[in-house]
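Sample pair:
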Amino acid sequence: MTDRLFLGIDGGGTKCRARIRTEDGALKSEAIGGLANIYSDFDGALRTILATAREALRKAGLAETGTERLHVGLGLAGVVTEEAAERVRRAGLPFAAFSVDVDAYVACLGAHDGRDGGIVIAGTGSAALALVDGKRHWLGGWGFPLGDDGSGAILGRAALRRAALAFDGMIESSPLLDELLAEFGRDRQGFGDWALTALPRDYARFSPRIFAAAAAGDRHGVELVEQAAQGVARMVEALIARGAPSIALIGGLARPVTPYLPDNLRKALIEPHRDPLDGAIMMARRAAGLKDWSP
């Protein structure tokens, strides 16, 4: 067995996904592992990556070949500096070869089939990236304290802030705000205590009901969703201004927020051609001197 195998890894704070393709692009297997957050647990993330790679080999019926046969593209959340990437390179991963980059890069590669374009990520957090004439344009990624406009976390927090104002009688309530307050038993102490330890994902889980309220015509729901859309629209506009010919909107809020974007921006949006795993495989193939394969 001398044909090269190419493994794509999409690793983040919730799960690690893996896909193996042959040199001609044929799909061999996929696997899902646990958390792969290199900042919160570097060694643990590497163990997860290796375990998920081995599971993908097992599912392909190739467990006996070992990971040293794999040419790997690692798209990892948080690899936003060269220092972070270099730390992964020095870790001695037992692959034939591997390349490492931030997960947004492989998502952008996949979304545009290796060509110029941009992505706006609207999920629990938000960020944007464009690849234009070999140059990267990175926007956002500041995290919950400083950024994440247009994200589920900021949308949820904005709704709960309004709910707090409604609780105190300083703004008129609505069915949405009443529902959010009921979530906490309309208890001031319990509501406040929850916020002391709440994480971005805790705020983001309210997003679906905010979009549902907006669809039902709830005044606060509509205003909140429109604010989120404005945050997404700013990133789309900024990438277009930097030369991105088209934009893929990805993440959990992508579909529900799209109808709230201006018509001219919706026309610039495309469906991703490929997913981040195939983008990671493309990165590995390029490192091996191969062209991108045809789907």
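The chain has two domains: 5-113+273-287, 152-270.
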